[in-house]
Amino acid sequence: MKSKTVSHILFTLIFIGILFGTLFTLVLKPKRLVSYYENRNLATIPEFSVSSLWDGSYFAAWETYLSDHAVGRETLLHLHTQTDLDVLHRPMVNDIIASEDDKLLAFYVDPPKTDEDVAAASSVLTEQCAAINKQIQSYGGTFLFASVPGQTSYYADSYPWYLSDTADQFELHRDVLAADLKANGVPFLDIGKYYDSLGHPVDFYSSTDHHYTYRGAFAAYQDIMQQINALTGDDLKIYTEDELEFRTLPNHSLGSRARKLYSVHDNAEERLTISSFKQPVAFRRYDNGTEVAASCYTLPANDTTEISYTIYMGGDQAETVIQTDRPELPNILIVGDSYTNALETLLYASFNEMRSLDLRHYQEKPLSEYIADYQPDIVLYLRDYGSLLSAEGNGTLK
Fold first, then answer.
1. What is the C-alpha to C-alpha distance for residues 22 and 138, in angstroms, rounded to an integer?
2. Does residue 43 surpass a pLDDT of 80?
3. Residue 92, pLDDT score
4. pTM
5. Cβ distance 129 to 177 under 8 Å?
6. Where are the beta strands (DSSP E) in 240-318?
């Protein structure tokens, strides 16, 4: 047999081996449902139907699935990200901008809304809030809509000049909504103004994550409690820094922005802080109806494990209930997304019972029915500037 023929056969066998080896690895390897670094759900195996076969969506779904679960995909994405950052020095990588002052900021690709779009979205949300407010007032409760800056708006000055209009859009959304809510008698609190009154501290927000830091959350807690006392006439306990012990964890913190860069960006100095009350408040905690450990933190087993914002309340929960068994104090319901997590570690101590709902995950009953069942004395609705007028997830109050 000629050597040329042998080489062709060997090449063919190697090619077939790689092809089928890759296929078998794809089929046999455990399938992940979520991409940790991309912070999104991965595609699942498409379900066959005649209609999807006919319109071509069935094969398109398979293409997406194979792409999401390709062998070595995450390693290749990691290398590609590192090349973009360290070799090509691109200004934007994976929709993340590394600013000149070493902050990782999101690039928003959505086009700016027109004034008419903003007015329409604000009108819809205001109508929903007014209905909830009326329901709560009917049994003597208090409703408070609180808005808090996101990292994008808080660090607006860190963006390059050609992306500086993003913060202006967020401010427009906030101002239009604030005016609509006020006109309809719905209490509105802009925590961003409180931050500004304190000098807009740079350490109130993470440099690599879209959330505020624990210091920022603590300031938000104080502002919210002051507003609750003003609205209700109560004199609820507002804890000061002197009454808490703050502890900065030694673990490396991997923020959501850094995750999108596959942890290639060096943010070794970022650390997360927790607190404890010097005079502890005993409580029981229930997540989604099941009693869990009476703790507000999910801490790592050692000092070297990477951690993220999910240490606060163990991350997003559909429903959390904390009971302190002090019936002389009011009950509070908090509605919001991950921005409530760090707040919850503080708010519960000022109330008899604290309930928290994340409507992105809670599906058991409509919010109005939940309020009717429990009749909380105070309902706090918390949204960040970036999602203020969104109708998704926590943006629909019914």
1. 63
2. no
3. 75
4. 0.84
5. no
6. 244-248, 273-277, 284-287, 290-292
Q: What is the dihedral of CA 362, 385, 215, 265, to 10 degrees?
A: 90
Cα separation, 316 vs 286, in Å, equals 13
C-alpha 249/C-alpha 149 separation (Å) is 25
**CA–CA distance, 345 with 294 (Å, rounded to integer):** 11
User: 324 and 283 in contact (C-beta within 8 Å)?
Assistant: yes
Which tokens sit at 162? 């050609």
pLDDT 10s digits, 207-250: 999 999 999 999 999 999 999 999 999 999 999 999 999 999 99
- Give DSSP secondary structure letters for 149-197: --HHHHTGGGS-GGGTHHHHHHHHHHHHHHHHHHHTT--EEEHHHHHHH
Q: Tell me the Ramachandran region of residue 162: left when phi exceeds 0, alpha when psi lies from -120 to 50, beta otherwise.
A: alpha
The predicted pLDDT at position 260 comes to 80
For residues 220 and 160, the answer to whether their CB atoms sit within 8 Å is: no
Residue with tokens 């000629």: 2
pLDDT above 90 (res 6): no
